[in-house]
Amino acid sequence: MPGSIAGLVACLTGWEIPQPVMAPLELLGGASIPLILMSFGASLTEQKMLDSPADRPTALVATAMKLVLMPAVALVLSLALGLSGTQLYAALILAALPTAQNVYNYAATYRKDEIVARDTVFLSTFLALPVMLGIAALFGG
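RESULT FIELD:
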């Protein structure tokens, strides 16, 4: 919270962080995505996808919710808001994107449901393409 307040104050006052302070922060920020991808990749060596019978149903349901339910909810909400054409298409494609790597990152950080998160990220990454192709065929114009 204090960081958010400091950022808001800096933004509102126009104060710029000095370059010697900002350079290492930019470097660290630029490394975040590759580090998350490396962490996720390392988790793939521990066991096969859907290898845990206890976690398999949860991972499959989470994947189905991400790839089917989320675009369906986006469709209903978009139509309720009067979106059409490119706006509707964009909303549906965004809803169909795969589960982000940061879901696995949070699961690994808090040591909670790592296998489910890993399997859902992996499955949704590959299965999102056919879903998005279907959306493109139906709504892409």
